[in-house]
Amino acid sequence: MTPSTVGIDIGGTKLLMIAQRTGHDEPLTRRLATGIATTPDDIEAAVQRFLTEHRLTPSSMGVAVPGLVEDGRVAVCDVLPKLTGWRGPVADDTRPLLVNDIRSALAAEARGLPESSTVAVLLCGTAVGSAYLHQGRVVRGCRGWAGEIGYLPVPTPRGILRLDDLAGGAAIVRATGLGPTQVHAALSAGDTAVRQTVEAAGESFGLAIATLVNILNPDTVRAAGGTLGYPGYWDTALATARTHSLPELWESCTVDRIKDPELVVARGALRLAAAAADGAGWVEQYV
């Protein structure tokens, strides 16, 4: 068996597992599909297969979930509701470190930044979420749940909607009646209606970025998520954010897409779990 550290990213459409093995530079990865019917048993079976097939013995395991985490369990999970109450998979008596997925991305992106940094990280996949550092400390809120920007109420001609309902990947799928692969195909074919839907969603995401720039005055804003991959989405978001941010605040920060976005959440979960196993006190502010 090979000693390893494991990071797991559970999303509304995918389960991504990575393992960093002792003595190896490149991690092992595996990606599987998830959906609203996914259960804890499904995830635990997939994790066990991954570990068994590669003969891995995890010394630590970080598990990132798309919901609110409290006291080591999933308290609320809209996109995967059957995970509510779950405490994560156990492998070889290794109890996982359970953490919100955006906090995991924040942990990955915080590595290498100055300790005094003020950072906002946004992910836009099935839904939208965010997490923040202020001068190197995680902004947690009274119960540790700060960052649920997907629930930001937005006035529209259809009434008050959540940002998730306007900017998230699930919103684009609902509005077009197409799956993600079909949306990409329609955009490539020049479908005007689909392009307008994607750009409208990007505009809503850009307004969210501007809101965070104006409220938090960060020096760094980083974004990732599968929805940003739709042509036109990110360009529209960036232009909208620039237009609606106070110019002085916009000029004082950098706004970029996260490099290697596919692995950022899993890498953050892995980093947090490994640091927790080593007794690093800073991990507590993330979980």
Automatic annotation (TrEMBL):
Belongs to the ROK (NagC/XylR) family. SUPFAM superfamilies: Actin-like ATPase domain. It comes from the Bacteria. This is ROK family protein. InterPro entries: ATPase_NBD, ROK. It comes from Streptomyces noursei (Streptomyces albulus).
